[in-house]
Amino acid sequence: MIGRLRGVVVHKQPPWLVVDVGGVGYELEAPMSTFYDLPEVGREVVLFTHHAVKEDSVALYGFLRELERRLFRDVQKVTGIGAKIALAILSGASVDDFARLVQAGDVTALTRIPGIGKKTAERIVVELRDRTSDYGGAGVPQAGRDRPGDPVSEASVALQQLGYKPVEITRMLKEAAPGDSAEDIIRKALKSMLRNG
């Protein structure tokens, strides 16, 4: 199993990034919570990883914080939740915010995350309430960013890959301001979706 990687970021395009470790490029899928704080391409990064092996696929997921990886693993223990929805949860809410929603039993807010219906949200609250009680202190200062190209287009593509529909994306992108990076736009869009539905 691969549990941690230290290497140089050679490519990042949500939800994918490639990290060069001793000449080997590891392709990882990561939530937006990790993308927000990734260093620039060419800089070193340390990622906690989750290595998933199934009958028909092998996948590697990367996280800047151990708590994110723990949440990613914990939510997949809930019936009906796989890696895609686990990534959407981490992309749509911080670990602290998610823990607060679960502790408060806020099923309505949880259903605003793509792939989570009312029954799944109710299962999350019941099955994860005890586990999320000790999810404190997820905050980390933001690292520098580089993002060539059109930030709105890149944000739109990332939101599509997270499972949002074009109509929802159009509404979410109204939060964008001139000069925002793709990560800024995605962060605002996901917060507005979680707030307003």
Task: Explain how this protein is built.
The chain is of the alpha+beta class. The protein folds into three domains: 4-63, OB fold (Dihydrolipoamide Acetyltransferase, E2P) (Beta Barrel), CATH 2.40.50.140; 69-133, 5' to 3' exonuclease, C-terminal subdomain (DNA polymerase, domain 1); 151-196, Helicase, Ruva Protein, domain 3 (Orthogonal Bundle). It contains nine helices and five strands, in the order βββαββαααααααα. β1 and β2 form a beta hairpin. α2 crosses α3 and α7 crosses α9 (182-196). The longest helix is centred in the last third of the chain and has 15 residues, at 182-196. It starts with a strand and ends with a helix.
- By CATH, the superfamily of the largest domain comes out as 5' to 3' exonuclease, C-terminal subdomain
Number of helices: 9
CATH topology tier name of the largest domain? DNA polymerase, domain 1
Task: Summarize the main sheet.
Answer: 5 strands, antiparallel
- Helicity range: 40-55%
SS-derived structural category: alpha+beta
Main sheet strand line-up: 3-2-1-4-5
Strand residue percentage: 15-25%
Give me the Rg, rounded.
16 Å
Number of domains: 3
Elements, N to C (H/E): EEEHEEHHHHHHHH
